[in-house]
């Protein structure tokens, strides 16, 4: 048996590829696609967390290593194709609320993340988080998947600069204004290239091209490089548009020492009540961000059974919990399952080999960060937009004739995008689902856990 055949055999034995209807090539492409759509976190997370006073270089290293550990745990514990990294929103809460508004040192915030991770490990091992997952009604699970499609497409059009801030909160990018104020050569060109990328991905999808997401991202990036070389695209760092041409390919990782195991347990003892509130906030948002993402991605891959349950949910949630704990020790905010995992799943990723591939690329990024961080957001945006379209197709599975289920589903879908939060969308979906069923005389259809979670969601709006 040759080395290549032996390697494929080992991967088949580890990840059960045939059983899951996939191949090594498909899984590798899926893992690469997922990584490319979420590599932005290596630039964004240090930018956000450094506002708390943490060392940016150390944060980047901690984020990459913690992401890799979590991805490897995902493969080992569940053999699922989900990728993990530092959660957006949670890192902002860490830096701007806990360390900013509340004025706590970043060491205290890291301690809260550590405690959250340990609690999550206990909850995962004792089936508490699994019970919460299973308590969500099937119709709301479908709505969560559709809502994530809406949400991720919205992220995509924002990343590309198609949708911008405006008098109506969100506005369409104006080419006229772009020419007038001189931003067209960066932002306007990015918008056009994103649109070309979307069309190219859709055409490849229709034609059945393997790896269409990855090819679409690379095509958009290459077109951007050509535009920069021709002077059509002009980098504008003030707008967040940087050079598309890598100036280097290799760099040594930054030291992790400034953030490694930097906890403040003394604060916990003297400010226990305040500390509990901080931990609760991390817990609550992370639980439902993770559950929402897992529901959406698993639904897209048809991994849920007829009762809407995910057979390997315990391993998925345990990987998330271990990732968060490892991240706190290394020096980064909460690690959570990324919605961008859906891009790899759309490419056909079905096993842990997808998440292992993504994890390896996170480690490689420590040495090749100048290359990976050069990929522009308008090049990855087309993939997010098309993934959003594919996930929203499940809207046909909502029972629109049953308003007691359909309206809460509608609320969940719309609020996920409008509130720019998976957990907030789930919160509004839960509350409306419970209240409508109680008021219409269907209170017995609601489980005790649903009532408890609804009460916690309402309480959350007043204390977080």
From TrEMBL:
> Which sequence ranges are marked TM in the entry?
28-48, 60-84, 104-128, 140-164, 184-206, 213-234, 273-296, 316-339, 351-373, 410-440, 446-463
How does the entry describe its membrane topology? Multi-pass membrane protein
Task: Give the subcellular location.
Answer: Cell membrane
- A GO molecular function held by the record: purine nucleobase transmembrane transporter activity
Q: Which domain of life is it from?
A: Bacteria
Q: Name one GO cellular component term.
A: plasma membrane
- What is any Pfam family matched here? Xan_ur_permease
Record's family? Belongs to the nucleobase:cation symporter-2 (NCS2) (TC 2.A.40) family. Azg-like subfamily.
List the protein's name. Answer: Putative permease
């Amino acid at each position: 048996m040759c080395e290549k055949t032996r390697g494929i055999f080992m991967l088949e034995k580890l990840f059960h590829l045939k059983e899951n209807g996939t191949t090594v090539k498909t899984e590798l492409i899926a893992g690469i696609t997922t990584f490319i759509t979420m590599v932005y976190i290596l630039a964004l997370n240090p930018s956000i967390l450094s506002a708390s006073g943490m060392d940016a270089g150390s944060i980047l290293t901690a984020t990459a290593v913690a992401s890799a550990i979590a991805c490897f745990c995902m493969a080992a514990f569940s053999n699922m194709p989900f990728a993990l990294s530092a959660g957006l929103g949670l890192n902002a809460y860490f830096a701007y609320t806990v360390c900013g508004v509340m004025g706590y040192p970043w060491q205290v915030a890291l301690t809260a993340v550590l405690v959250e991770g340990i609690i999550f490990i206990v909850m995962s091992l004792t089936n508490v988080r699994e019970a919460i997952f299973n308590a969500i009604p099937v119709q709301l699970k479908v709505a969560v998947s559709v809502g994530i499609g809406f949400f991720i497409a919205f992220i995509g059009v924002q990343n590309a600069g198609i949708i911008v801030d405006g008098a109506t909160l969100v506005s369409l990018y104006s080419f006229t204004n772009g020419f007038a104020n001189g931003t067209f050569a960066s932002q306007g060109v990015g918008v056009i290239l994103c649109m070309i990328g979307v069309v190219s991905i859709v055409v490849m999808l229709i034609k059945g091209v393997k790896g269409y997401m990855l090819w679409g991202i690379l095509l958009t990036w290459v077109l951007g490089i050509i535009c920069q070389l021709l002077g059509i695209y002009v980098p504008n760092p003030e707008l967040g548009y940087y050079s598309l041409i890598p100036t280097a390919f290799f760099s040594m990782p930054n030291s992790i020492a400034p953030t490694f195991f930097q906890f403040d347990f003394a604060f916990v003892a003297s400010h226990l009540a305040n500390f509990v509130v901080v931990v609760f906030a991390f817990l609550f948002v992370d639980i439902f961000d993770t559950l929402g993402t897992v529901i959406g991605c698993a639904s897209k891959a048809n991994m849920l059974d007829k009762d809407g349950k995910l057979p390997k949910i315990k391993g998925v949630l345990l990987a998330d919990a271990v990732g968060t704990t490892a991240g706190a020790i290394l020096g980064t905010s909460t690690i959570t399952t990324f919605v961008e995992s859906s891009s790899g799943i759309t490419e056909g990723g079905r096993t842990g080999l997808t998440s292992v591939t993504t994890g390896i690329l996170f480690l490689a990024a420590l040495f090749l960060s100048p290359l990976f961080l050069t990929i522009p957001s308008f090049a990855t945006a087309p993939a997010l937009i098309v993934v959003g379209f594919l996930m929203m197709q499940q809207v046909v599975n909502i029972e629109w004739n049953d308003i007691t289920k359909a309206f809460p589903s509608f609320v969940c879908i719309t609020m996920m995008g409008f509130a720019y939060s998976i957990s907030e969308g789930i919160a509004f979906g839960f509350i409306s689902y419970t209240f409508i069923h109680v008021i219409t005389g269907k209170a017995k259809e609601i489980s005790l856990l649903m009532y408890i979670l609804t009460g916690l969601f309402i309480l959350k709006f007043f204390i977080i």
